[in-house]
């Protein structure tokens, strides 16, 4: 149940919170404050909970609203603003001193976006500054920063799953003795390339456990190719990762390539502790709102 401090509503629900207003707007019900107060506290709490969810159950909302006295006025349903970018009217109301980059706007919940626009279009412009501070705040400078300044995992529940693909590469350059060991498959620790390949796949699947703000993803493909470059005495790593999800797999591909290189180092370090790893870089990605990338 989401209540905003700037909105003035508290757990007593003597006022009509923005979350409840959003639920009623989706259902096309204009319920007066008197009608809202006439409802049992359990019904008022349910309206707030329904309006706090990403998808509003309009059937439940309508059923609750119709129990209000006086009954709600039926109006055309009003829905949430686009998650892609804030509208010109909201940006104009906020002004240059209160920016909302598209990435920060998309990271907000549907209720947060609704609340900002509702306040901006309301009759109390003095509420807009505290609303912005509470909902956007420091996140205007990074979608991974919360309004109060702490780091957070970006919410992606409102995005539609799409095919995501990323390719990354890395490289391990070594001395002649170490390269001979890997090329002749004579390293004492065993199969260097085979072990590095398994390590890369494991790393891709566990990226969210290693990189703090990454989302756990259901990967559909992890392809790892390791090749030998005799002229440079190097092992070249290429990784392709795919999934059908709400966020990209760039970090999974990069993590897999990095761990493959580290595994090569670990298995050959007895012969060359001065091996150089890198560059490790993203080669390409596709899918998602940001579009495609090609190195």
Write the CATH architecture name of the domain at 162-294: 2-Layer Sandwich
> Which CATH first-tier class of the domain at 162-294 would you pick?
Alpha Beta
Tally of individual helices: 12
Shape: elongated
Order of helices and strands: HEHHHEHHHHEHHHEEHEEE
User: Structural class of the helices, strands and pairings?
Assistant: alpha+beta
Radius of gyration: 27 Å
Roughly how much helix do the residues carry, as a percent range?
Answer: 25-40%
- Secondary structure: number of strands: 8
Task: Give the low-confidence spans.
Answer: none
Please report the distance between the alpha carbons of the first and last residues: 45 Å
**CATH level-3 fold name of the domain at 162-294:** Alpha-Beta Plaits
CATH superfamily of the domain at 162-294: Molybdopterin cofactor biosynthesis C (MoaC) domain
Describe this structure in words.
With 295 residues, the chain is α+β, with helices and mostly antiparallel strands. Among the domains are: 18-74, no CATH class; 162-294, Alpha-Beta Plaits (2-Layer Sandwich). It contains 12 helices and 8 strands. It has helices spanning 18-27, 33-38, 41-52, 58-65, 88-94, 102-107, 110-120, 128-135, 176-183, 192-205, 207-210, 250-268, and strands at 29-30, 73-74, 162-173, 219-229, 234-245, 276-277, 281-286, 293-294. Helix 1 crosses helix 3 (41-52). The radius of gyration is 27 Å and the shape is elongated.
């Amino acid at each position: 149940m989401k209540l905003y401090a700037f909105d003035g509503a508290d757990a007593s629900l003597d006022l009509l919170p923005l979350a409840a207003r959003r639920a009623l707007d989706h259902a096309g019900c204009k319920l007066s404050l008197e009608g809202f107060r006439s409802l049992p506290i359990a019904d008022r709490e349910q309206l707030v909970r329904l309006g706090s969810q990403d998808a509003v159950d309009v059937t439940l909302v309508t059923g609750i609203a119709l129990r209000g006295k006086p009954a709600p006025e039926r109006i055309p349903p009003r829905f949430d603003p686009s998650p892609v970018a804030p509208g010109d009217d909201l940006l104009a109301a906020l002004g240059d001193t209160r920016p909302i980059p598209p990435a920060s706007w998309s990271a907000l919940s549907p209720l947060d976006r609704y609340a900002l626009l509702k306040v901006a279009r309301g009759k109390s412009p003095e509420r807009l500054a505290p609303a912005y501070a509470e909902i956007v705040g420091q996140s205007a400078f990074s979608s991974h920063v919360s309004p109060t300044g702490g780091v957070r995992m970006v919410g992606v529940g409102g995005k539609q799953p799409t095919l995501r693909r990323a390719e990354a590469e890395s490289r391990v350059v070594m001395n002649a003795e170490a390269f001979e060991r890997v090329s002749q498959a004579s390293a004492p620790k065993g199969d260097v390339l085979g072990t590095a390949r398994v390590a890369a796949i494991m790393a891709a699947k566990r990226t969210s456990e290693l990189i703090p703000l990454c989302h756990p993803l259901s990967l559909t493909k992890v392809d790892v190719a390791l090749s030998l470059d005799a002229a440079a005495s190097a092992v070249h790593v290429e990784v392709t990762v795919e999934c059908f999800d709400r966020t990209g797999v760039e970090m999974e591909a990069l993590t897999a390539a990095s761990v493959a290189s580290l595994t090569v180092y670990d298995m050959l370090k007895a012969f060359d502790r001065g091996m150089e790893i890198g560059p490790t870089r993203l080669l390409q990605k596709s899918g998602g709102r940001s579009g495609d990338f090609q190195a």
